[in-house]
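dumping the sequnces here before i forget
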Amino acid sequence: MDGPSGSGKSSVSRGAARALGLRYLDTGAMYRAMTWWMLQQGVDLTDPAAVAARCGEPAIVSGTDPDGPAIHVDGVDVAGPIRESDVTGAVSAVAAVPEVRARLVALQREIIGAGDIVVEGRDIGSVVWPDAAVKIYLTASPEARARRRSAEVAGSTVEAQQEAMARRDTLDSTRKTDPLSMAAGAIELDTTALTLDEVIAEVLRLVKERT
Ligand SMILES: Nc1ncnc2c1ncn2[C@@H]1O[C@H](COP(=O)(O)OP(=O)(O)OP(=O)(O)O)[C@@H](O)[C@H]1O
Ligand SMILES: Nc1ccn([C@H]2C[C@H](O)[C@@H](COP(=O)(O)O)O2)c(=O)n1
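..and the predicted 3d for all of it:
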């Protein structure tokens, strides 16, 4: 499951994994965990060489339970801190560093290799697992995505969310290494006018049809 920020990848992937009895992996959380660690260490995130030099150090461990996705860095539970604005504002710069991607993609492939999993991110169908049985590219209008996100962040406005998401999507889709893109063979699913339950139902229908 790939797509831009706020398109519904996490909610839909978790819902589909639950319904299908599969594991679930949030690869964005891994980039966020790496970013959290870099911030804790005081690494200069504007210097890709500094990020590359340190990215092999943290032990990042991802859980795969769709009912309680967990993520730890060096044994610390970072599920909460990785959603804070400092990490969200910095993660695209860290995710653009090729050495970071190489390390996290290798970890992701280890987890996916055990099978029976729904994986969400930006480059899953194109780079991480191009042979996935079903590849879905989730979209929604920028307004719908911003409205959904602003509903879950207290005190935020739709306009501010839309601006922040546009900035992150531009960075994620224009970076040189593994940018956000629709993979060959992916099915595009526009969720703008659909409820979450309708999107999950459509994903389950596609999985049944294709597997
Ligand atoms: N079809 C939908 N209709 C209404 N709300 C939705 C729909 N899909 C997702 N949402 C809500 O939109 C918000 C963003 O969804 P979610 O976190 O799953 O997106 P995402 O693509 O994983 O975002 P990010 O890449 O930024 O982590 C959540 O509050 C979720 O409940
Ligand atoms: N496979 C992935 C997953 C995520 N990223 C980057 C791009 C996002 O801005 C950031 C956080 O992801 P989110 O939690 O918002 O889904 O991580 C990536 O480059 N590749």
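The mean pLDDT is 96.
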